[in-house]
Amino acid sequence: MTSPSLEFHWLGRIAYADALALQDSTVAARIRNETPDQIFLLEHDPVFTIGRTRDRSSLGEVSSLPHPVVEVSRGGQATYHGPGQLVGYPILDLKSHGQDLHRYLRSLEDALIRYALSLGVPAERREGLTGVWVGPRKLASIGVGVRHWITLHGFALNIHGPLAGFDAITPCGLANVEITSLESEGCPGLTVEQAAKDIQPHLQEALGELKTS
Predict the structure, then answer these.
(1) What would the pLDDT profile of 178-195 be if each residue is shown by its tens digit?
(2) Is the C or the N end of the chain the one with fewer CB within 10 Å?
(3) What are the residue ranges spanned by the domains of the chain?
(4) 3-state secondary structure the chain
C-alpha cells in the first residue's frame, strides 16, 4: 500500500544554501499543515556538511578543504555532496508514519536498496552502520533531522563520478572506507535526473509501508 499524498519535486542542480532554506520553509509549512508530505530530489554544487557534533575530526583540516563547509541540524559526521550524486530531502510528518525515527531510517535504506537491486547492483545494509553498501563499499549515506516530528535532510546516493571530494575527508567518520557509485558497480550512462525519476516508486512504496504498518 502506498502513500498517495506524497509529492516529488525534481529541482536539478542547486546550491546547498538554497536547498537548506527551502527545507526550512517547507518544514515550517508542514508543521502548520499547510503543505503535504513531499520529497525534494536534486543535485548539489560541491560542498562538505557535518552534523551536530563536537567531534569534527572527520573534516580534517578545514582550511585545506577544496569546497565550503556547512554545519547542519542532522546527525552524523562529515560527508560530501556534489555533481553525480542524487540527494533526496523528504519532508514528512512522522506522526502519520509510525512516529519512529529508527524505522524511518530503515525505510530510506529499503528504498535505496530496492532501487539499486532493480539495476542489478547487490546493495545491502551493514550491521550497526546507517547507509547502503555494496560489499565493503559505501554507495549511499543517510542523515536526517526532525522538528516537531517533521523530517528534513535525508539521503545521498552516488550515481556517477567524479566524487573526489570524499578523498578530502573521512566520510561519515569511517576511516579507510571506499566510496562507490552505481556507475562503478556496473550502471554506466545513468544520469542523476533519470535516477531521480526511477527511484520515486521505490521511495513511495517504502514510505507507504511505513505509513500503514
Answers:
(1) 899 999 999 999 999 999
(2) N
(3) 7-212
(4) CCCCCCEEEEEEEECHHHHHHHHHHHHHHHHCCCCCCEEEEEEECCEEEECCCCCCHHHCCHHHCCCCEEECCCCCCCEEECCCEEEEEEECEHHHCCCCHHHHHHHHHHHHHHHHHHCCCCCEEECCEEEEEECCEEEEEEEEEEECCEEEEEEEEECCCCCHHHHHCCHHHCCCCEECCCCCCCCCCCCHHHHHHHCHHHHHHHHHHHHHC
Active site residues: 172
pTM: 0.91
User: The cell 546516493 sits on which residue?
Assistant: 157
State the residue for C-alpha cell 529541482. Answer: 11
Alpha-carbon distance 58 to 164, whole Å? 16
The answer as to CATH 3.40.228.10 being correct for domain 7-212 is: no
